[in-house]
Amino acid sequence: MKSKKLLVIGLTWPEPTATAAGVRMMQLIEIFKKYEFETLFVSTASRTEHSQDLEAMGIATNHIKLNDASFDAFIKELRPDIVLFDRFLTEEQFGWRVFECCPEALRILDSEDLHSLRHSRENCFKKGIPFTEAHWLQDDRTKRELASMLRSDLTLVISSYEMELLQQTARIDASLLWHLPFMYDAISQQNDWPEFEARRDFLFIGGGLHTPNVDAIKHLEQDIWPKILGRISNAKCYIYGAYLPDAVTKLHNPQKGFYVRGRARSVSEVMKMARVCLAPLRFGAGIKGKLVDALLNGTPSVTTGIGAEGMHGALDWNGFITETQDDFIDKAIELYTDKTVWQKAQDNGIQIINTLYQKTSLETSLMDRITEVSKSLATHREQNIMGRILEYHTVQSTKYLSKWIEEKHKNK
């Protein structure tokens, strides 16, 4: 029997210990490996010392060039059954080449989170104006991201809120989308988590290359932490995250109980020892890795509506979702000092993971959908007329821009 081939085109090399995007990519790779796909991961980016060792997992890797015809020869020889694009930027860069060289390959886009939504919200926040869905639709990045989804055979969407936004506001047909949150094994009520009394202090965790995290840390240090410390004088707040910029590291101030630690050796280890996770996010998109980690380690959290967006369905949050700074401070203190409230929040977290993030059922449903689309790919594409129109025009425009850049590089 011919083995099935998966080509993953990564925007970056996955770093699951540093980013939620890295966790997401590794989960996807592991699904396809479980279903016996011969997998090749490629990227134009450079690896770091913290990049996942894919070869050790039996995953072949390669470096590819941007705006270079060598990719065409490479993919024609490989002839993958499925091509998975890591975020819309890789689909823009390589989608037309895949279409031309391997038109029979199923093209899947993993959106990670809606980058256009995060970008639009950040712009509104910086300008001091309310975010609206109309503002999002008008953003040029939104048009690019939606076009990428329409050109793809299937787009994986991590957040239930973003599924709703794409279908109801952007009018993307449901047949082109698949809701796939993070995936985890069920949590047993009999776990090894430290109890309330064995935990102490507050924690924020998030990578420094992600603008929403940098803003949240500054907001926490300037506006929130001094007021919490004023009411719980012996408390400490620890900041963890890879690639934290100088603007964050200089906030380290033990005299004020604010400790900037940088990259955590083990996210689970530091999360389990904290009593409360703080996530005062003021813009962003997708499912927040820090809050999933809090759920997985029995650490109640206080966050904002944007922080918890698309994460818990109709279930109660594992702590509090707040919309004002004063409420955030009050709820953080309540959660930190009231054992009964804290334990109920922890139980809510178990329910969220076991109900909405069930690994086995999510894996099975995804592969069933991929099989279904693959078997009727021609019909699936015929029904997506807007995708075919965009595909035609994108090939014409992107193709010749890329070839122009390629020729320019040759003549240097």
TrEMBL record:
Source organism, top-level taxon: Bacteria
Checking Gene3D superfamilies in the record gives:
Glycogen Phosphorylase B (3.40.50.2000)
Q: What is this protein called?
A: Glycosyltransferase family 4 protein
